[in-house]
Amino acid sequence: MPTRYKGTPEEKRALDAYIKLQRASETVLARTTRHLAERDLSVSQFGVLEALHHLGTLSQRDLADKLLKSTGNMSIVIKNLEKRDLIARERDPDDNRYMQVCITDAGRDLLLSLLGAHVRGIVEAMSVLTAAEQEELGRLCRKLGLRDAA
Of 60, 64, 101, 128, which alpha carbon lies 20 to 30 A from 47's? Predict the structure, then answer.
């Protein structure tokens, strides 16, 4: 649905593209993460497990930065994963102010039981685009995401 905003052509074009990006993002995310609820995992919890599996032990702050979440939100996500023994926390030996987070064997087992189907779901969702379109989408999203970093 295009924007109904009565602005300049530049404003209408930008809002239309933004609305389409937001709707597509939400739709694809919902479609590719439904299976997580069956295992009582949120998207953020899955993201934490995946990050720890691939990157190793990280501080809570680094996890929040990696997943683009607030440190307050990340504290809740980590607390809930810890209750289920999917992750463990311990004080950073070099700086007591920081908590280091690592994935447990149970967390790794859960993640690995989901990862193949998760990846297949993403591949399926993206299959409506050609390989070239997927690469172009990736390039454009990166350009948008890094705009303020430059």
Answer: 128
- The pTM for the full model equals 0.85
**Per-residue model confidence as pLDDT tens digits over 62-76:** 999 999 999 889 999
Nearest 5°: phi and psi at 115? Answer: -65, -45
Boundaries of domain holding 42: 9-144
Task: Please check whether residue 99 is in contact with residue 79, taking contact to mean a CB–CB distance below 8 angstroms.
Answer: no
Name the residue among 86, 46, 87 with its Cα closest to residue 69. Answer: 46
Our measurement of the distance from residue 77's CA atom to the centroid of its chain's CA atoms, rounded to an integer in Å, reads 13
Question: Cα separation of 72 and 116, whole Å?
Answer: 30
**CA separation for the pair 3, 9 (Å, rounded):** 11
Calpha distance 23→16 (Å, rounded): 11
* Residue 56 CB-half CA count within 13 A: 0
- Domain assignment of residue 3, yes or no: no
Q: What is the DSSP letter of 18?
A: H
